[in-house]
Amino acid sequence: MPCLYPDVKGILYALKDKGIDVAIASRSSTLEIAKTILDKLGIQSLFVAQEIFSSVTHKTELFQRIHNKTKIPYTDMLFFDNEHRNIIAVKFSHHLLLFSFF
User: Is the overall model pTM greater than 0.85, yes or no?
Assistant: First the structure.
């Protein structure tokens, strides 16, 4: 069973308490498994939008869907990712603040 780093849940709750919206944009061919893991980790309800789709969906599409659902301007979004290709794809699409983990 996957687990969170020790402070992640506390950080997510602190963001929620401060009125800062958090969303997920993920490519996964196992949507139901991803949602089940989020539920078992006890964090599924902390996200204002969950855009989890098959691997053929581009990250830019997921951000458009989040924007359409939340009306949050792209300039107010932060993007964290561990895949360089996603950073590049999103970088040239919207004015997001990007963070990469390698």
Answer: no
